[in-house]
Design brief:
Length: 217
């Protein structure tokens, strides 16, 4: 039997129904955001979630309508530039592209983002590369960021250990930095000495002022 071609194409479903189907079957994550403005009504301080499609829910492990805001869920987002990217995309009214590695807040993936404003909402489409072979450049970036984070954590641990030693020392100790001797840290014994010295200095100033007033009288 020969293939049958209808004389007229099937009627297209209503646009809302078609978009709903596309929203749900898309293998790309889609998020509808609503901006949260500061009291001035201009500065964007956060985004609330309006809706996530099935792919976004799976990639981010979030429900369809999260109750928490974007920055509540991802407090490390501002330093990575992704929050500024969302703000710029909403203000520009033109499509914006961005990519970043995000190993924070329970995520560890390299994301490709596209965002554009639609009325009062920001529409974000994204994919991650967790299930894809990683290019050499991307893998090198991930490794460099991992080394940087490990080095930062090690430095912070050393600083905490050094401060603990300073605090427990039986002597008054202070750590000074630079030619102007900026105080980086002082233990409690040194702080007490400086506090007494400051009180004596203030007392001496009061005495000098009193003597000056007596001489003037």
């Amino acid at each position: 039997m020969s293939a049958f071609t209808p004389a007229h194409p099937a009627a297209m479903p209503a646009s809302d129904d078609l978009l709903e189907v596309l929203f749900n079957v898309s293998m790309t994550g889609v998020i509808f955001f609503q901006p949260v403005f500061a009291a001035d009504g201009v500065e964007i301080v956060d985004f609330t979630y309006v809706r996530l499609n099935a792919a976004a829910q799976q990639m981010l492990q979030l429900p369809e309508r999260p109750e928490q805001s974007f920055l509540d869920l991802y407090p490390d987002a501002p330093p990575t530039g992704v929050f500024d990217f969302y703000c710029q995309a909403f203000r520009s009214r033109e499509g914006q592209l961005h990519q970043l590695n995000y190993p924070h807040d329970g995520l560890d993936a390299y994301f490709y983002l596209a965002a554009r404003r639609s009325g009062a909402l920001l529409v974000v489409s994204f994919t991650d590369t967790n299930n894809q072979p990683r290019p050499a450049v991307e893998e090198a970036l991930r490794q460099a960021q991992a080394r940087e984070q490990a080095a930062r954590a090690e430095a912070e641990a050393r600083q905490r250990e050094r401060r603990a030693v300073f605090e427990q020392a039986p002597l008054a100790l202070a750590l000074l930095q630079g030619p102007t001797h900026v105080v980086e840290f002082a233990n409690e014994r040194m702080a007490r000495i400086w506090d007494r010295a400051q009180r004596f200095t203030q007392l001496g100033t009061i005495k000098r002022q009193a003597l000056q007033r007596g001489e003037q009288a």
